[in-house]
Amino acid sequence: MAEKKSDRTRAAILAAARERFGADGYERATIRAIAADAAIDPAMVMRYYGSKEKLFAAAAEFDVRLPDLSGVPREQAGEVLVRHLVERWEEDDTLRVLLRTAVTNESAAERMRQVFIGQLTPAFERAAVDQPAVRAGLIATQALGFALCRYILVFEPIATLSTDRAVAWLGPTITRYLTAPDPSHV
Amino acid sequence: MAEKKSDRTRAAILAAARERFGADGYERATIRAIAADAAIDPAMVMRYYGSKEKLFAAAAEFDVRLPDLSGVPREQAGEVLVRHLVERWEEDDTLRVLLRTAVTNESAAERMRQVFIGQLTPAFERAAVDQPAVRAGLIATQALGFALCRYILVFEPIATLSTDRAVAWLGPTITRYLTAPDPSHV
DNA sequence: AGCATATGCCAACACTTGTTGACTTTTCGA
DNA sequence: TCGAAAAGTCAACAAGTGTTGGCATATGCT
Questions:
Q1: What CATH number is given to the structural domain containing A85?
Q2: Would residue A67 count as lying in a domain?
Q3: Using the beta-carbon criterion (under 8 Å), do A176 and B177 form an inter-chain contact?
Q4: Is the peptide bond before A157 cis (omega within 30 degrees of 0)?
Q5: Which residues of B touch A99 (CB under 8 A)?
Q6: d(Cα B34, Cα B27) in Å, to the nearest integer?
Q7: In chain B, which residues have their Cβ closer than 8 Å to the Cβ of A177?
Q8: Structural domain count, chain B
Q9: Is the Cβ pair B141, A146 closer than 8 Å?
Q10: CA of B35 to C1' of C10 (A)
Q11: Which residues bind DNA (chains A, B) (predicted)?
C-alpha cells in the first residue's frame, strides 16, 4: 500500500476545506482555519495542494450524475429530475460549496455553467426537445433558486420543507419548462 | 442650502460602493478600490460612512415597492409580479448588491429574508391566500433563482432573454405558486 | 479681509492573508 | 541497525486589508 499516513491527512484537509468553503465562501474561508479544523499545520495544506485555488478546485470537484430520463414519461420528468437534484444536494455539500463560491468567483461560476447549461442542454437536444438551451436555463433558475433559498439563505419554510413536498411543488414547474410550448406571443 | 460639496462626494462614494459591491461582493470590494472609483481618498470613505459595514448598509438600502395586486385577477398576478420584479431588478443594482452579498454575509441574508419573506407573506395573508408562507417562499425561489442565473452567474440564454419572454415563461409559474392547491398527497 | 470650519490628502498603524524555507521528527526498507 | 525519504513544525515574509490621526487646503460667514 502506498503512503497511508499522508493520504489520511490529505483527506482530512479536503473534508475541512469543503466544510469551510461551504460555510463561509471562498474569501472568508482561510487556509489557517481549514488547517486548524484538520488539526494540522497550515504549511501542510500548501505542501499537499499547492495553493488555495487548487485546494478549492479539489474541494469543488464532483460529478453531476444526471439521471437517465429516457424511460420516464414526459409528464413525470420534472418530478424525477427535482427529486434527483434535491437528494444529490442533500447528501454532500460539494454543490453548496460551488454555489456559495460561484457568486463571487468567476472560475466557480464557469464550472456551474458547465454543469447546468453544458450538461442539461445537450441532454435535451438528444431528447429532441425544442429550444433546449432556454428550457435548460429555465430549469436551472428554479433548481438553483430553490437551493439558494433552502441551503444558503435559509428561508423558512423552504429550508424545512420535506423532500416530498418540495418535489410536489417544484416538479410540475420543471415539467412545464421542459414540455410546454413557448408562451411568448411571437 | 446645506453643504453641497460634501453631499456630492457622499453620493459619489455611494455610487462607487454600489458598483463595486455589486460586481465583486462584500469581501473582494475594498475600500481603497471604491475610493479610487470615486476619485477620492480612502480616508474620506471612513469619514463619511464610519466603516465598511456601515457603507455596505447604506449601499444596500432600498424599498421593495411591491406592486398592488388587489385589483389584479388572480390568473395574471404572477405576470404582474414578475414584470415588476424584473424591471425593478434591471433599473438599479441595489438588489444585485444585496444578492451577491447575502450569500456570504449573514446580515445581508437577514435583510433578504425581510424583503422576500417578511413582506410577501403578510401581503398574501391580507389577500386571504392559504399557506401564505409556503407560497411566498416558493415565489422567492423562482424569483431569486432567475436573478441569480441572469445577473450573477450569467447563464445564457437566460441573461439575454427579453423581459417579455421572461415574464411569459415565469409568470405562470408564479401564478401557480400563488393560486394552485397544495399538491402534496397528504 | 480674517478666521473658524468643513473638506480633503498623506502616511502610518495593527492586523490578517497566502505562501515559503529551514529545521525537526517519524517511518520504514536494506 | 542505520540512514534516506517522508511527514510535520516553526517562524517569518511580503502584500493587502480596514482604520486612524495629523496636517494642508478650501469654503463661507461676519
A1: 1.10.357
A2: no
A3: no
A4: yes
A5: 103
A6: 12
A7: 169
A8: 2
A9: yes
A10: 15
A11: 30-49
Same domain flag for B96 and B31:
no
Lookup: nucleotide whose C1' is closest to A34 CA: C18
Instruction: Going from the first residue of chain B to its last (186 residues), give the mean pLDDT of each consecutive group of 10, the final group possibly shorter.
Output: 68 94 92 95 94 93 77 86 91 87 88 88 85 95 96 94 96 94 78
Please write the tens of the pLDDT for every residue from A24-73: 999 999 999 999 999 999 999 999 999 999 999 999 887 777 787 777 88
Task: Please check whether residue A65 lies inside any domain of the structure.
Answer: no
The cell 402534496 sits on which residue? B184
How many Cβ atoms are within 10 Å of B5's Cβ, its own excluded? 7
Does one domain contain both A164 and A100? yes
Beta-carbon count within 10 A of A76 CB: 12
Cell numbers standing for residue B81 = 409580479
Domain of B16 in residue numbering reads as 4-59
- What single DSSP character describes residue B182? P
- Asked if strand C comes closer than 7 Å to A52 Cβ, the answer is yes
